[in-house]
Protein 1
Amino acid sequence: MNITGRLTRDAEVRTTSQQKQVVNFSVAINDSYRNKQGERIEQTTYFDCSYWITPNVAKILTKGSLVELSGRVTARAWTGNDGEAHAGLNFHTSQIKLHGGGKKSETVQATVETATKKTEDDLPF
């Protein structure tokens, strides 16, 4: 399955009791449709994601980044400490394609723009 969405928080690296590292992050996917009355309905779906291949990817997975993910979805249900029933979707990610849009992407873009302006000012003509 493929999904495309924005990270809702910076990725975190966690170590399991078997000393394996996993990158955890959350992605929001926005969708909209018109109901029978013609009203536009906005809908957001959240996925808790895990990536087991390399922890280094956590450095570039920052809040707001647009990512395209490949992997498989599982659903889970649990009862909270308050006795309320909860449910969530987990996305076991096997491939990540970063499309930008996060804090680090904005920083890199600003740095490139500054360097370009300096070069243009130094031209003799």
Protein 2
Amino acid sequence: MFGLMVRFTCTDETAAAAFDELVARTGAQIRANEPGTVIYTVHRVDGRPLERIFYELYRDVAAFETHESQEYVRIFLDEREQYLASTEVDCLDFVAGKGVDVEH
């Protein structure tokens, strides 16, 4: 398994709403087209209305690379910048968990 946790901070409320729309469009494509993407979730942060946290879990690094190569993901990566004040990315190495059926 390969994962990411990403914290995005939007520039303002208008940007946050537009970012959420971009996320919704992209997420629909991810759900429909990426069997190697095990979990792709987006969360608002309580008390911090401009922040979003993405939790992404892929079957392996190859599935992540496939995800990154998709046209709709490339569009997301290009368009998101106009809405963001900052981005923080942590790469995750899966150890154990509930809800994911994997042999490790």
Protein 3
Amino acid sequence: MKPRIVIPKVAPEAYQAMLSLEKYIASTSLNPVHKELIKIRASQVNGCAYCINMHTADARKLGVSEQRIYLLSAWREADIYTQEEKAILALTEEVTLISHHVSEETYANAAQYFDEKSLAEIIMMIITINAWNRIGIATGMRAV
């Protein structure tokens, strides 16, 4: 692959705006494991190897088992995720694949487990990792 732009160098203001979103996400009350499950699953759906590599390593550091990481792409058929995690993962997939919209069923299911503030934080987390995925893919970042 030919070298591509490095956004922090050519558009530092835009990159700083992304880092501000990341700072907000870090300040939320979201469970750190939930954050990593969102990041991994969105990155899988988007096909961002760089982010999958980074966030699976981060999840392991938090104590997430290999089994939970490996089964994440098939979470609906795995009984190792809590109902809250399944609600988050469904919402992650629908927000990531937004052209299909977020169904009332998925939103209502998530709202059973999370209050409005937590839902806002979850949605912002999903939006942020999707933006990072798009930056990584568009600029040709590679998993090492």
Protein 4
Amino acid sequence: MVYVYSEENVMPPLELDEVDQQILESLHENSRISYTDLAKRIGLSRIAVQQRIASLIEAEVIERFTVVINPAKVGIQVSAFFNVDIEPQFLDEVAEKLSKEPPVTSLYHMSGPSTLHMHGVFKNMHEMENFLLKTLYAMPGIVRVDSQLLLRRYKSRMGLKL
């Protein structure tokens, strides 16, 4: 999904009341909580909670429900961040291609010295090297790639927390 932050595309923010905020906080902690348990926690009926969640989904406040996988437990040994400088006329094309690459977990158009900031995960250094040589370096418009390997994760938040 592409997020565009510009004044011309700004929609008025959805007004979230305290109950909606409690629902979102609870779902952020455990998105598998049942409607019944969530209703008990918040003090509403199961139907009311279900309707509020459906409204939050329809309003695109909740984009999706997902699972967070521990990379080390599934054989992912390399996590790397990349700063990718791109010729301006190739920016959208490169971003579109990279967004479809399985190792790429996040991709941002940034201000500052680099054009794109990207995170990728790989089974090992050989897989990362292949990605660099066969995918990244092969794309037209890429001027420079700077990479940094993640040594230790202290905190990683998935999704926005209110």
